[in-house]
């Protein structure tokens, strides 16, 4: 697992948990300050894409889970 910490100055505003595989990565879970003015979930995915580019991962899988009903 890779933990991406996103800061605004000294304030931790988001953490994105990424499962790292041989040729890919999976955006496992992201949590963030809901009152923050920017879309931190989108920003986290962009950072994960950059991680994949830097480490030559072919794919980034985005996990989708319903919070209303169990899958």
List the topology elements:
Layout: E1 2-8, E2 11-20, E3 24-32, H1 40-54, E4 59-62
The H/E string reads: EEEHE
Q: Nearest-angstrom radius of gyration?
A: 13 Å
Overall shape: it is elongated
Largest sheet, in brief, is: 4 strands, mixed
Q: Walk across the major sheet and give the strand order.
A: 1-2-3-4
Number of helices: 1
Low-confidence stretches: none
Describe the structure.
By secondary structure, this protein is α+β, with helices and mostly antiparallel strands. Helices cover 21% and strands 42% of the residues. It has one helix at residues 40-54; strands at residues 2-8, 11-20, 24-32, 59-62. Strand 3 (24-32), helix 1 (40-54) and strand 4 form a beta-alpha-beta unit. It is elongated and about 35 Å long. One of its GO terms (molecular function) is arginyl-tRNA--protein transferase activity. This is Arginine-tRNA-protein transferase. Residues 4-63 form the N-end rule aminoacyl transferase C-terminal domain. Its EC number is 2.3.2.8.
Question: Key features?
Answer:
elongated, 4 strands, alpha+beta, 4-stranded mixed beta sheet
Question: Nutshell version of this structure?
Answer:
Pfam families: ATE_C. It is built from one helix and four strands.
């Amino acid at each position: 697992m890779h933990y991406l910490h996103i800061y605004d100055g000294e304030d931790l505003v988001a953490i994105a948990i990424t499962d790292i595989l041989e040729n890919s990565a999976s955006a496992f879970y992201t949590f963030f300050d809901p009152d923050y003015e920017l879309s931190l979930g989108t920003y986290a995915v962009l950072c994960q894409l950059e991680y994949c580019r830097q480490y030559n991962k072919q794919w980034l899988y985005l996990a989708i889970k319903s919070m209303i009903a169990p899958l």
